[in-house]
Amino acid sequence: MKKYEAVFILDIRKADDEGNAFAKEFGELIESLGGKLESVTPMGRRQFTYEIDKRRAGLYFDFVFELAAAKVRDIKDKYKLDQRVLRNMIIIYDRPADANGNKLAD
After folding, report:
1. Could you tell me the CATH superfamily of domain 2-92?
2. The 55-67 sheet, strands edge to edge
């Protein structure tokens, strides 16, 4: 399993209870796909530089999880049409190394 980081921007008008229900649902999805959710970081409401779908702000969430590479497509497909999600990005989680080649702490 690889380690991934996902950032989601939620529509404020459609995300209930500041997105906490979405975060719980995402964690359950990761576990149902055989992965492990390591951390959830709600980053709060932020203003956009430019409008996205006629919205000026959104709720940001950062997730770090481990999952088989083939299952990442399932996550992307599930949230592609979800009206609560304005934008999302899933990348391989990789922290830079220091000058000695040691990974920096999370």
Report:
1. Ribosomal protein S6/Translation elongation factor EF1B (3.30.70.60)
2. 36-52, 55-67, 2-11, 85-92
